[in-house]
Each structure stands twice: as structure tokens, then as C-alpha cells.
UniProtKB/TrEMBL annotation, chain A:
Residues 1-197 form the Heme-copper oxidase subunit III family profile domain. Its EC number is 1.10.3.-. Catalyzes quinol oxidation with the concomitant reduction of oxygen to water. Belongs to the cytochrome c oxidase subunit 3 family. This is Quinol oxidase subunit 3. It catalyses: 2 a quinol + O2 = 2 a quinone + 2 H2O. It comes from Peribacillus deserti.
TrEMBL record, chain B:
Signal peptide: none annotated. Gene3D superfamilies: Cytochrome c oxidase-like, subunit I domain. It is found in: Cell membrane. SUPFAM superfamilies: Cytochrome c oxidase subunit I-like. The chain crosses the membrane at residues 15-37, 58-78, 98-125, 137-158, 185-209, 229-249, 269-291, 312-331, 343-364, 376-399, 419-436, 448-469, 489-514, 579-598. It is an enzyme of class 1 (oxidoreductase). This is Quinol oxidase subunit 1. Pathway: Energy metabolism; oxidative phosphorylation. It catalyses: 2 a quinol + O2 = 2 a quinone + 2 H2O.
Length: 198, 648
């Protein structure tokens, strides 16, 4: 394995560079995935079939908490990658841990939100609007859930193996994923929640 | 017993029971054969666990050929039923199931893996790489495709086949009108195979963008590699749309959601839109690599460099962009209004321009060339006129006002077979014949190959030209019969004869493989066609590491330059080569996905949850795995190289 020391650790081998490009392309596919969900959402948003609509369901409180938690987690993972580039393993692991806790907090509030929706008579089977609402939010939530496990595994590996080109590469790719989920949330916040409450 | 009732087929017939027995016997025969010849270990070590792009390519090829015959049998049954008016060979339900599976099998489980087969085998060799960017992911792609295909194929003996057409339009595909599990199979089997295809798209884009040999700039890539790059780009942007559409369809059928239903606000046209936002780019995913194959073959056997290389590249990129802007032309008659229809009419007709550019480029490549009419070249020469007919009828269909006459008639069926058979199937058979010696170390028989090409072409013309006529006269597609007074009878009989001739053509192909395995000379050079691109610069059989030294590239036709202009392709000494290790994980994951899909189809929730957990455990294990691959030492390379050079 040839290691190029002029580059950051996560880019230092050919394999690492391939993985990072491959992941960017994967994120391109993810953009299409969420793009399709948003397009379907805009198509179905007014088809409530007499059931609750966004104005009725959405509350700004929990949504703002979710937004702050997720945006903060994006910041802390940025700090984590910064610490990784400085070679400070402990700091990096701490920031990654905080990121995952914030993610867990986000997920808890989202689940609470879902339960509230169901209590107000909006299940996934109520109308086309609730079907696409739960599916779009749920797809994002499932991504966050997967990210929690993935991030945990990466912390364990960094703990066990230290900062090697491989673990650094994994951590960096995970940070791309996490930032991407944040970007998707900004769209959900703006175009599903804020627009729905207007 | 209620539990087992769901596995029964809704419309049993003796043919299906016979198929069950045949499937059972074949499985037993394979197991017995493998045990008797003690080949289980060989199968596991050399094939099921392989991450070598060449072997994965060959597995794709075998799957594609098997599916070609499955889809071909479907086709013959359809044409036999329609051969005479009011025939009783198949009932309406059975006919619906057969045309639905014929479409899905041919597009997704025959044409796609055929393209993947050639892409896998050829692209890394053409760019001078040792493997693809993510070899294990590549194996996973294959096994996901394979398990998806198998899941789809068992539908007709367990639970019933999908019967809502390959487009599976809602509300027809909803629970109300498609009661059997058939459409569940459609949603879930295609989902599994589709994830595999998406991963291939990511893998090959990364490979082509990052792993080209030194000196090969983007504009020095061989045309097949270019077409693969563009096709994979389309895959990455089109397949997620299908993923979402299928997930929604699955939820509508199994979880009672209301995406495409006719009540509670659902919108059936959303399915049609999402399906074709994926579906139209999908046909370009098939046709662009086919164009790439034709470009390689025409340039090789006209003994000239490809005319208009740059315009070839630009036209492909333009086609890729347009492919996402034309989807509504599949349902002009569904009332989206004159303005929308006009816009989509114009974008659709505009696609004819870059396609025309390519046709003329091939013609100019032939002009003043020293044409050698080998079998691959014969396919290419048949392709140009036949495909052009299909292209012209495509422009006819693109006119939205006129489409009200053509829509849902045999005219449309004639059109898309007219582009897919000469465009894709001929390209795949040409590519198969062309790359056969590189894959297997001997050539297919030329005489039998030409017989196949002619039989397929004549059969194709007889089978599909009459459909243009009956279509214009109003024969609807997907109708299992028609009355004698329509006058469609004789034309449909001609179609049946044409289909039978095509079947003979494929039988000759099978015989050709058998004949060539037995009698063809093994003493061929590594470059039997006197070709121009890099894949012919390595030995036959291709060693595990493809190239002992990384080739140095100076032009589009580096290998030709090396042969004729004294360009030095391989410089320097051997160095040890890093290769990935084999892994059983992709195959195991594929098997779990199969069980997952099967449980999902029938809504058996406990195994579904267990297999879902199993899939995530596999992913977690992969995350923790520490696999650094292995090195091939210089001595080993020298030994292999000496041996292979002796063979040539």
C-alpha cells in the first residue's frame, strides 16, 4: 500500500481516494432518492381526503428542537474531522460521540412527533398526504438510525485500531453522510414543515 | 392449512405443473452432478466467492443467456396464442401473466445483465485496470441481481406471476385488481435487482473516472468505455427513482398506504410518471453500451479509426441528458394537456438528432474502409438499417396528436421491439461473438454465427413488420385474442412464423456454442480479430491481474499504435501486484436477500424481520472486517507470463 503523506490521512492511499469518490457518487444517487420523495410529496400534499393536513398536524416546538439538534450534530462532526486531521484521537472520538448523542436526541423527538401525529388521527394509511409525509420523514429517520449504528462502529474501530488511513477514511466518509442528512433535513424543515404551517 | 394456501398458484394448468416438476428435476440434477463430480469446492472457491471482474462478467453472461431463453419461451407462447383468431391455447389471465413476465425478464433480467456482462469483462481491460474500484461490491451487485431474477422467476410456480404488464400501472396493479401475490413479486424482485444495478453504476463510474492507465485522458477512452460511463451515470440518477416508486407500490399493496390508490387521495398517474422517469432513461442504459459495442466492432472490421470520435461522445452525453426529459411521451393520451404534450413531443423528436449523428458516424467509418464481414460485423451491418426503421417509427410515435391513433396498439409493440432487438440484442450477440475468444480462448464458428444473424434478422422482420400494419388498423396490444372479422389473422400468423424462425436462430446459436466447444481450434492468438483497443493487448486467457505491467497510453487506439507505429505499450520491470481477496459474504448476503424478498412477497413477518436483521449484521461484519487483500509476487508474475506467452 503506497501512502502519500502530502495528503490528509483519509486521502492518503489510492483505495481511500476511490472510496471517497465512490461515496460522493452514492450521495448523488441519494439526492435523486430524496428528490423523488420531495416531488411526490409536493404532488400529494393537498390530497388529504378529509383527514388532517400539515396546518393541523405540525407544531413548531418539536420541529425546532429537531432542527437545532441535527444542525448542532453537523457542527460537532465537523469538529471531529478537524480533530482527526490534527491527529487528536481522543478529541475526535469525543466529538463523534457527541454527534451520535445529538442524533439520538433528534431521533427521539422525531419518534415523539410521529406518536403525536398518530394520536391526532394521522397514520400512514389515512390519506395520500399522510402516506408520503411518513414515508419522506421516515426515510430520513431511517438514514439517521443507520448512521447511529455506523458511527458507533467507527468509534469502536478508531478506539481499537487508532487513526490509520483506513479508519480515517471511514470516519471522513461517515462525516459526508452525516452532513448530507443535515442538508436533507434543511429541505424537510423548509418545504414540509415551514411551508405546511404557512 | 390456511398458511400454505397462499403459495398455491391462482390459475393452475398442466403446463405449470410440468414446469414445477422440470424445475425440481433440474435442481436435483445440478446437486447430484456437482456431488458426483466433486465440484462443490471448485464452485465455491472459483465462482461463488470470486471478486474477479472477468468471472463476474461470465456469471452475468450465463444468467443473461438463461433469461433470454426464459423470455423467449414466453414470447413464443404469446405469438402462438395470437397466431389464429379466437385461439384457446392460453386464457386471458395466463396471457396477462406471460406478457408481463416476458417484458420484465427481457428488459431487466436479460438485456441488463448482458450489458453488465460485457461491461464487467471489457471495461477494466479497455482502460488498463487490474479490477474495478470496489471488487467485492461488484460481486454483491451480481448476487443481488441474480437473486432478484431468481425470485421473480419462481413466481409462476409459487403464488402466481405478476399480471399487470411490465409497466405495472396502478390501479390495475393494486390489490383490488391484482389479487395474487404476483405484483408483490414484481415490486420486490425488481427492488433487489435494482439495488444491485445502482451499486454497479457507482462502482463503474468510480472505476472509469479514477482507474484509467497513465496517459488515457477522458477523450482518449475507447468508445465502449465512454458509453459505459454515460450509461452508468444514467443508472445512478435513474434507479433511485425506481427504488422509491417500487417502495411506494409495495407499501400500497402490503401496508395499506394511499400513494397510487383511487381512494383517500391517492394518485394513480404518479406511478406512471415515476415509472417512466426511470423507465425512459433505462432504455438508454441499454442502448448506449450497445452503441459502444457497435462502434468498437465497426471500427475494427472497417479497418479504420472511428469517424467523428468527439461527436460520438457529445451525442451520447446529449442523449443521456434528453433521456430524463421525455418520459411523458409514454402516456400522451392520459390528459396532461396540449402544452405538456407539445413540449414532450419536441424533446422526444430532438433525441433523433444525436442518434442520427451516430448513425452517420458509423456510415462514414465504413466509407472507404476495407470491410471484413465477420459475424460481429454482419450484426452491425444489419443493425444500421433495421434500427433506423425503428428510429423513424419512434419519431412517428413522438408526435403527440398522431399518438392518439398509435397508443396502446401493436404499432407501439412493433416500434420498441424494432429498436431493442436490432439495437440491443444484436449488439449483445455481436459483442458476445467478438469477445468470446478473449473470454474462453477459442472462437465461435463463423458460418453458424452468420446463420444465426440472418435467421434472427429475417425472423425479426417477419415477426414485427406485420405489427406495424395491424397496429395502424387498430389491433390493441395486451389483448389475448381477436375475432376473425378484424382481418388480423393472416398478419399474426406471419408474426408467429417470424417468431419461430427467431427461435431457430437461437437454437443455432446454442448449437454453435456446443460445436465450437468441441471442435474449435484452441491455438488462437490473443488478438484474433486484429483489433485496435487495449483489451486485446493482454494474453488469452486473461491472467488474474489483467496486465503484468501498467500500459502506457498515447492515443484512442493505443494497441493499434503499438502494433503498427512502434508505440511501446509496456515499459519497465515487473512489480508485485496488489489484488483483492475472495469473499463468501456477497453470495451469503444475496441468499439472505432472497429469503427476505420471499418473506416480503408473502407477508410472512417473522422471517422478514429476521432476514432484515441478518442483512444488517452482514453489513456490520463487513465494517469490522480487516481485509487487506494479497500480493502477487514478481516470481509468480514471471512464471505466469512465460507460460501464457508460450501458449500464444
Amino acid at each position: 500500500m503506497k501512502i502519500d503523506n502530502s495528503l490528509p490521512l483519509e486521502y492518503s492511499t489510492e483505495e481511500n481516494r476511490l472510496k471517497i469518490l465512490g461515496f460522493w457518487i452514492f450521495l448523488g444517487a441519494e439526492i435523486m432518492l430524496f428528490g423523488t420523495l420531495f416531488a411526490s410529496y409536493f404532488t400529494l400534499v393537498d390530497r388529504t381526503a378529509g383527514g388532517p393536513n400539515g396546518m393541523h398536524l405540525f407544531e413548531i416546538g418539536p420541529v425546532l428542537i429537531e432542527t437545532f439538534l441535527l444542525l448542532a450534530s453537523s457542527f460537532t462532526i465537523g469538529l471531529g474531522i478537524h480533530a482527526m486531521r490534527l491527529g487528536r484521537r481522543k478529541a475526535m472520538m469525543t466529538f463523534f460521540g457527541i454527534t451520535l448523542l445529538l442524533g439520538l436526541g433528534f431521533l427521539s423527538v422525531e419518534i415523539y412527533d410521529f406518536i403525536m401525529y398518530v394520536h391526532e388521527g394521522a397514520t400512514i394509511q389515512t390519506s395520500a398526504f399522510t402516506s408520503i409525509l411518513f414515508t419522506t420523514l421516515g426515510t430520513h429517520g431511517a438514514h439517521v438510525t443507520l448512521g447511529l449504528f455506523w458511527g458507533l462502529f467507527i468509534i469502536l474501530q478508531v478506539k481499537k485500531r487508532g487513526l490509520t488511513p483506513e479508519t480515517a477514511n471511514k470516519s471522513f466518509i461517515f462525516s459526508l453522510y452525516w452532513h448530507f442528512l443535515d442538508v436533507v433535513w434543511i429541505f424537510i424543515f423548509s418545504f414540509i414543515y415551514l411551508k405546511g404551517m404557512m | 392449512m390456511d398458511f400454505f394456501d397462499r403459495f398455491a398458484i391462482p390459475h393452475p394448468s398442466p403446463v405449470i405443473y410440468a414446469s414445477m416438476v422440470a424445475i425440481g428435476l433440474t435442481v436435483l440434477a445440478i446437486i447430484a452432478g456437482l456431488s458426483y463430480f466433486k465440484k462443490w469446492g471448485y464452485l465455491w472457491r472459483e465462482w461463488l466467492t470470486t471478486v474477479d471482474h472477468k468471472r463476474i462478467g461470465i456469471m452475468y453472461l450465463i444468467s443473461a443467456l438463461l433469461m433470454l431463453f426464459r423470455g423467449g419461451v414466453d414470447a413464443i407462447m404469446l405469438r402462438a396464442q395470437l397466431a389464429t383468431p379466437e385461439a384457446k391455447l392460453l386464457d386471458a389471465q395466463h396471457y396477462n401473466e406471460i406478457f408481463s413476465t416476458h417484458g420484465v425478464v427481457m428488459i431487466l433480467f436479460m438485456a441488463m445483465p448482458f450489458i453488465m456482462a460485457l461491461m464487467n469483462f471489457v471495461v477494466p481491460l479497455q482502460i488498463g485496470a487490474r479490477d474495478v474500484a470496489f471488487p467485492r461490491l461488484n460481486a454483491l451487485s451480481f448476487w443481488l441481481f441474480f437473486m432478484g431474477a431468481m425470485l421473480f422467476n419462481i413466481s409462476f410456480v409459487i403464488g402466481g406471476s405478476p399480471d399487470a404488464g411490465w409497466t405495472s400501472y396502478f390501479p390495475l396493479a393494486g390489490n383490488e385488481f391484482s389479487e395474487s401475490v404476483g405484483t408483490n413479486y414484481y415490486m420486490i424482485a425488481i427492488q433487489i435487482a435494482g439495488i444491485g444495478t445502482l451499486l454497479t453504476g457507482i462502482n463503474f463510474m468510480t472505476t472509469i473516472l479514477k482507474m484509467r492507465a497513465p496517459g488515457m485522458t477522458l477523450m482518449k477512452m475507447p468508445m465502449f468505455t465512454w458509453s459505459s460511463l454515460v450509461a452508468n451515470l444514467i443508472i445512478v440518477f435513474a434507479f433511485p427513482v425506481l427504488t422509491v416508486a417500487l417502495a411506494m407500490g409495495t407499501m400500497d399493496r402490503l401496508f395499506g398506504t394511499h400513494f397510487f390508490t383511487t381512494d383517500n387521495g391517492g394518485m394513480d398517474m404518479l406511478w406512471a410518471n415515476l415509472f417512466w422517469v426511470w423507465g425512459h432513461p433505462e432504455v438508454y442504459i441499454l442502448i448506449l453500451p450497445s452503441f459502444g459495442i457497435y462502434s468498437e466492432i465497426i471500427s475494427t472490421f472497417a479497418r479504420r479509426n472511428l469517424y467523428g470520435y468527439k461527436s460520438m461522445v457529445y451525442s451520447m452525453v446529449v442523449i443521456a441528458a434528453y433521456s430524463f426529459l421525455v418520459w411523458a411521451h409514454h402516456f400522451f393520451t392520459m390528459g396532461q394537456g396540449a402544452l405538456t404534450n407539445s413540449i414532450f413531443s419536441i424533446t422526444t423528436m430532438a433525441i433523433a438528432v444525436p442518434t442520427g449523428v451516430k448513425i452517420f458516424n458509423w456510415l462514414f467509418t465504413l466509407y472507404k474502409g476495407k470491410i471484413e464481414m465477420t459475424t460481429p460485423m454482419l450484426y452491425s451491418m444489419l443493425f444500421i438499417p433495421l434500427f433506423t426503421i425503428g428510429g423513424v417509427t419512434g419519431v412517428m410515435l413522438a408526435m403527440s396528436a398522431a399518438d392518439y391513433q398509435y397508443h396502446n396498439t401493436m404499432f407501439l409493440v412493433a416500434h420498441f421491439h424494432n429498436v431493442i432487438i436490432p439495437g440491443v440484442v444484436f449488439a449483445m450477440l455481436a459483442g458476445l461473438t467478438y469477445y468470446w475468444p478473449k473470454m474462453f480462448g477459442f472462437m465461435l464458428n463463423e458460418k453458424l454465427g452468420k446463420w444465426t444473424a440472418w435467421l434472427l434478422s429475417i425472423g425479426f422482420l417477419l415477426a414485427f413488420m406485420p405489427m406495424y400494419i395491424t397496429g395502424l388498423d387498430g389491433q390493441a396490444r395486451r389483448m389475448y385474442t381477436y375475432s376473425e372479422s378484424t382481418g388480423f389473422g393472416p398478419w399474426n400468423m406471419v408474426s408467429f412464423i417470424g417468431a419461430a424462425i427467431m427461435a431457430v436462430g437461437f437454437a443455432v446459436l446454442v448449437y454453435n456454442v456446443y460445436y465450437s466447444v468441441r471442435y474449435a481450434s484452441r491455438n488462437i492468438s490473443s488478438d484474433p480479430w486484429d483489433a485496435r483497443t487495449l483489451e486485446w493487448a493482454t494474453h488469452t486467457p486473461v491472467p488474474e491481474y489483467n496486465f503484468a505491467q501498467v500500459p502506457q497510453i498515447d492515443s484512442i487506439e493505443t494497441f493499434w499504435d503499438a502494433k503498427k507505429k512502434g508505440h511501446v505499450l509496456f515499459k519497465g520491470k515487473y512489480e508485485k501486484i496488489h489484488m483483492p481477496n475472495n469473499s463468501g459474504m456477497p453470495f451469503i448476503m444475496g441468499c439472505i436477500f432472497f429469503a427476505w424478498g420471499f418473506s416480503f412477497v408473502f407477508g410472512i413477518w417473522v422471517p422478514l424481520i429476521l432476514t432484515t436483521i441478518g442483512i444488517f449484521i452482514c453489513m456490520a461484519l463487513r465494517s469490522f472486517e480487516n481485509d487487506h487483500g494479497h500480493y502477487i509476487s514478481v516470481e509468480e508474475i514471471e512464471e505466469t507470463e512465460t507460460k501464457l506467452r508460450g501458449a500464444n
